[in-house]
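User: Let's play a game. I give you a shape written as tokens, and you guess the letters that built it. Ready? Here's round one.
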């Protein structure tokens, strides 16, 4: 039986750990200093409590870190300080650069580091999130097997540490920012009493802009016209006390496509221009 340690069982971590337990693993959690709410979640998920981190590092074949991103490096340091030499999976929403630092933190202890990212809602009878994994090729099957037949769809990626983290942030940068922008757009429409009409327009679309990569070139070529519109949007938002920063940021992105005005750029050209600064320097 594989022994998995979970640090720390929040709503996502506990649900994922429960799936590993149902697949046959023993799952440990560290109760030292944790809240009653965390203890209740762990109990509901059938996790086994250990008194301290040292006991977990002594017993666990695999440790999965799922904590607030700002705490990810400190959690890794605490595990490395116990000379943990098993498989350490960082499943936090951190950047590839942060993930590289976490790998360096764990390296002296002899641990095998796997970069993990969860995309989707906590697993349940109706929801099956994906757990993407990257790192040493020989280490990935062991983690995948922990979730065989469960609601967690573990998917290995080619490439080393950093690939899974990059995928997570690539997706969440769109998913979360678009939700925020949608809320701001609805608030503006509501201030002028046209929210019902806005929803009527939006409900006519059934696909995600993220999936429409062919349209990126059209956006880039038209940015010279759309950028001033975004600036006007920012001014309008500010006038009614709503945050203008998202609209200003969209205008700043469009500034980088200034050189593609009235052209038919390829997707490669569009992406290349995003890596270049705007004409004339910073906006």
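Assistant: Ready! My guess for every position:
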């Amino acid at each position: 039986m594989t022994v998995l340690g979970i640090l720390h069982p929040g709503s996502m971590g506990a649900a994922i750990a429960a799936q590993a337990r149902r697949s046959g693993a023993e799952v440990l959690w560290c109760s030292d200093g944790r809240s009653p709410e965390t203890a209740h979640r762990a109990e509901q998920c059938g996790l086994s409590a250990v008194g301290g981190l040292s006991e977990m590092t002594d017993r666990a074949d695999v440790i999965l870190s799922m904590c607030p991103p700002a705490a990810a490096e400190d959690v890794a340091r605490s595990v490395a300080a116990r000379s943990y030499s098993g498989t350490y999976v960082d499943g936090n929403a951190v950047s590839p650069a942060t993930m590289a630092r976490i790998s360096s933190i764990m390296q002296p202890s002899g641990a095998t580091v796997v970069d993990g990212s969860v995309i989707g809602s906590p697993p349940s009878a109706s929801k099956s999130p994906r757990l993407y994994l990257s790192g040493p090729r020989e280490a990935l099957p062991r983690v995948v097997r922990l979730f065989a037949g469960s609601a967690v769809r573990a998917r290995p990626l080619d490439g080393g540490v950093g690939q899974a983290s990059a995928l997570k942030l690539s997706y969440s940068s769109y998913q979360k920012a678009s939700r925020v922008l949608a809320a701001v757009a609805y608030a503006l429409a509501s201030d002028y009493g046209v929210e019902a009409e806005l929803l009527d327009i939006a409900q006519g679309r059934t696909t995600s802009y993220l999936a429409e990569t062919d349209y990126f070139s059209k956006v880039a070529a038209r940015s010279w016209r759309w950028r001033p519109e975004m600036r006007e949007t920012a001014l309008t938002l500010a006038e009614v006390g709503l945050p203008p920063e998202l609209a200003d940021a969209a205008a700043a992105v469009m500034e980088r496509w200034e050189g593609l005005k009235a052209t038919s750029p390829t997707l490669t050209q569009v992406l290349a221009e995003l890596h270049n600064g705007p004409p004339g320097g910073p906006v």
